[in-house]
Design a protein that fits this description.
The complex is a heterodimer.
Chain A lengths: L6 H28 L2 H5 L1 H40 L6 H39 L2 H7 L4 H40 L3 H11 L2 H28 L5 H31 L2
Helix pairs in contact in A: 3-4, 3-6, 4-6, 4-7, 4-8, 4-9, 6-8, 8-9
Chain B lengths: L2 H26 L10 E8 L10 E4 L2 E12 L4 E9 L9 E6 L6 E6 L11 E3 L1 E3 L4 H22 L12
Parallel strand pairs in B: 1-7, 2-6, 5-8
Antiparallel strand pairs in B: 1-4, 2-3, 3-4, 5-6
The chains are: A mainly alpha, B alpha/beta.
Chain lengths: 262, 170
């Protein structure tokens, strides 16, 4: 790897490495799904992970959602006020939260708050040879360690995104209606007439589900293939945030184009 | 942490998620405007439906009496075929007329139903015969422009001695 090579063979090596990395990632997903039966047989393992991933992330998600709602309320009011249509504030806040900001910001925070802890935990398990010990005891570590974490993350993420959107809308309401004085009836009725349950709310939930799968998967993958050294775990944790966030943003563009572009 | 305690907090977390979803669906979304009341269907042909959308409201005297369930195109008459889901508790005479209106200046378009005078009511699958298309702003403006130009032309023809009224006065 470190020996000087000519650029052509370096490019070839990089291409081959990338392709086989994608292949290994896909195989990793397949292996996780194939072992998912344990999530049904021992649901308590999953609920422990939902507690670890979801409950502990709740506070940061709720507080961020509240402030995002505050800012949307303020900024939206100043912009809409210019066109004399500040009644549409509720619609603006709700649509931007439910369709975009709720799932995306939650997923970014989720990658930072829960994804890193998953990666570090698994990487340290590997460094402490706990994973190897499990294998010696004929316990499949992928089944026992990874599958509950995967499903815990997939379950927790849509719930967190829904809480984020709800708190954000309430935050927008606090700023818009309580502090600035937009008419409360117009705020809610414009929101209700403009937000469609299936097209907006349900698609937001689908988005957050997809983001939950991708962020959790990236976090587990990075932890699983981290080099079992302090530096390796540190690198894997960083890569979880970088790759997870980029995956979320890229997928968000794709999903938005699929769902709302007609 | 003991198992029972974990279960309690996870349960609370999941319930909070459900509450948030219900809030989004009912308070922020339009699930509450979905009615599960029995409906009957009507169809109406329009020359132009403008910006009418599926699930737009059907209003009579300003009250929502149904929703638009489908918009299609008739290959024979080259007209738009709009299917309406009407609430069974609201019955309309057979000679009622439908027109496409806009709420506010730039609001969403809806279908306005003006009841007729006939004794017999619409049956399920009935067809509204009297329809009025959406107003297209461009056509309106061009009509107005042509009308003004024509008037000006007539006025200058009628009074060639230079006694024509100023063009702005009608």
């Amino acid at each position: 790897m470190n020996t000087p090579r000519n650029p052509v063979s370096a490019l070839g090596g990089w291409t081959l490495g990338t392709i086989s990395g994608v292949g290994y990632f896909t195989r990793f997903l397949g292996a996780l799904l194939a072992r998912s039966g344990i999530a049904l047989r021992r649901p308590r393992l999953v609920s422990q992970q939902v507690h670890f991933i979801g409950n502990y992330s709740l506070l940061i998600i709720a507080v961020s959602g509240m402030f995002v709602g505050f800012v949307l309320g303020l900024q939206g009011y100043y912009t809409l006020n210019r066109y004399g249509s500040e009644e549409a504030l509720g619609l603006l806040v709700a649509l931007s939260l439910v369709r975009e900001l709720g799932p995306v910001v939650t997923a970014l925070l989720f990658a930072g708050r829960a994804g890193t802890s998953l990666t570090a935990e698994i990487g340290l398990m590997k460094a402490g040879e706990q994973i190897a010990a499990m294998e010696v005891m004929a316990v499949d570590p992928m089944r026992r360690v990874l599958v509950p974490r995967f499903w815990g993350g997939v379950i927790a993420m849509p719930i967190l995104a829904a809480v984020f959107s709800m708190v954000g809308i309430l935050g927008g309401w606090v700023v818009g209606v309580v502090l600035i004085g937009v008419d409360a009836g117009a705020f809610w009725s414009q929101m209700q007439s403009g937000v469609d349950v299936w097209k907006d709310v349900l698609n937001g939930v689908v988005k957050s589900l997809v983001f939950g799968v991708s962020v959790t998967l990236v976090a587990l993958y990075e932890g699983w293939q981290a080099r079992p050294t302090p530096e390796g775990v540190a690198r894997a944790t960083t890569r979880t945030v970088v790759v997870g966030s980029l995956a979320v943003l890229g997928l968000d563009f794709l999903l938005t184009a699929l769902m709302f572009g007609n | 942490m003991s198992r029972a305690k974990t279960d309690f907090w996870v349960g609370l977390f999941v319930l909070l998620g459900f509450a948030a979803l219900v809030f989004l669906a009912l308070r922020a979304g339009n699930l509450s405007s979905f009615s599960f009341a029995p409906t009957y269907q009507l169809t109406a042909n329009f020359d132009n439906i403008g910006g009418l959308k599926v699930r737009a409201p059907v209003k009579s005297a300003g009250v929502v009496v149904g929703r638009i369930s489908r918009i299609g195109f008739d290959n024979q008459t080259f007209q738009a075929v709009v299917t309406l889901d009407m609430d069974t508790s609201y019955q309309f005479p057979k000679d009622s007329s439908a027109s496409i209106l806009t709420s506010g200046l730039l609001g969403e378009q809806y279908l306005g139903l003006v009841p007729g005078a006939e004794d017999e009511n619409f049956a399920d699958g009935g067809k509204i015969r009297y329809t009025q298309s959406a107003v297209v702003l461009e056509q309106l403006i061009s009509q107005f422009l042509y009308g003004t130009a024509e008037k000006q032309g007539n006025a200058s023809n009628a009074a060639p001695d230079g006694a024509a009224p100023p063009p702005a006065a009608r």
